[in-house]
Amino acid sequence: MGAGAGPVAFRFMDMPGNEEPLTDSRVGLTPRQARRIRIVLASVLMAAMAVVLVVRLASRTSVLVVGVYGAALVLCGVVIELSRHGRTRLGTWMLGLGLAAALAADWLLLP
């Protein structure tokens, strides 16, 4: 075994056509499907937050309302960008915790 045998072997394994077929035991989403689902979910939640913002502003105009729901809208946009760049787990956690915090702030802070 020569000094250059290791990297050469790995280089040939990465070439197209040298892959082994995946077995059918893999369960779950592909990374591309996960990204698209997170993007669609964040987009739907962004639209929902926009509707809630309009409804809340119609009933009570407040800078705090705009701040809470504006932050939720920005958070949804950040999650969309994170998902586009492959950070789906981080985006999912941010989306869940951020929207829960926005709803808690609405319930606790807004009259």
Structural class: mainly alpha
Low-confidence stretches: none
Mean pLDDT: 81
Span of the ends, CA to CA? 74 Å
What percent strand? Answer: under 5%
Radius of gyration: 22 Å
- Tally of alpha and pi helices: 4
Based on CA inertia axes, which overall geometry fits? elongated
SSE string, helix = H, strand = E?
A: HHHH
Largest sheet: none
Indicate the percent of residues in helices.
Answer: over 70%
Structure summary, number of beta strands: 0
Transmembrane segments: 39-58, 64-83, 90-110
Keywords: Membrane, Transmembrane, Transmembrane helix
Provide a descriptive summary of the structure in words:
It is a single chain. With about 110 residues, the protein is an all-alpha fold. The protein is about 75% helix and about 0% strand. It is built from four helices and no strands. It has helices at about 5-15, 30-60, 65-85, 90-110. Helix 3 (about 65-85) runs antiparallel to helix 4. It is elongated. It starts with a helix and ends with a helix.
Question: Any descriptors?
Answer:
single chain, 111 residues, mainly alpha, transmembrane helix, transmembrane, membrane
How would you summarize this macromolecular structure in one to three sentences?
The chain crosses the membrane at residues 39-58, 64-83, 90-110. This protein has 111 residues and is mainly α. It has helices spanning 5-13, 31-59, 63-84, 88-109.
